[in-house]
Amino acid sequence: MVEQFARQHGDEVRVVGMGSQDNLELAGDFLAVTGVETPLMLWDRGFDSWAYYGVTGQPIAILVEPDGTPIQGWRGAFDPDEVLELAARA
Predict the structure, then answer these.
(1) pLDDT of residue 28
(2) Does position 25 have pLDDT exceeding 80, yes or no?
């Protein structure tokens, strides 16, 4: 769902995937197995991003301002239309 959203709406929002669980090698394996290409994928080895955004589990989606300030978060699935509406207002 995230890959499809990123492909369809990449001109409206920038989708970033953040890995921090397991290790960087397993994150690379995930990308190779799933074929995820569109979202920019980042790695946080220290869980600092989880602490900053208050993440307590996965999956989670967070809409943020360009400076990193959170706007809205979703645990599990997110509504693409809601994301686009909130992003347009930001």
Answers:
(1) 83
(2) yes
Contacts of 6 (CB under 8 A, 6+ apart): 15, 38, 39
Q: Which of 32, 29, 28, 41 is nearest to 2 (CA)?
A: 41
Whole-angstrom distance, CA of residue 10 vs CA of residue 23:
27
Strand 16-19, strand 70-75: pairing: unpaired
User: What is the DSSP secondary structure assignment for residue 23, as one 8-state letter?
Assistant: -
Please list, in sequence order, all residues whose beta carbon lies within 8 angstroms of the beta carbon of residue 81, skipping any fewer than 6 positions away.
none
DSSP state of 39: S
- Domains annotated on the chain, with CATH: 2-89 (3.40.30.10)
Q: Cβ–Cβ contacts within 10 Å for residue 89, how many?
A: 7
Is omega for the bond preceding 59 within 30 degrees of 0, making it cis? yes
42 token code pair: 């980042």
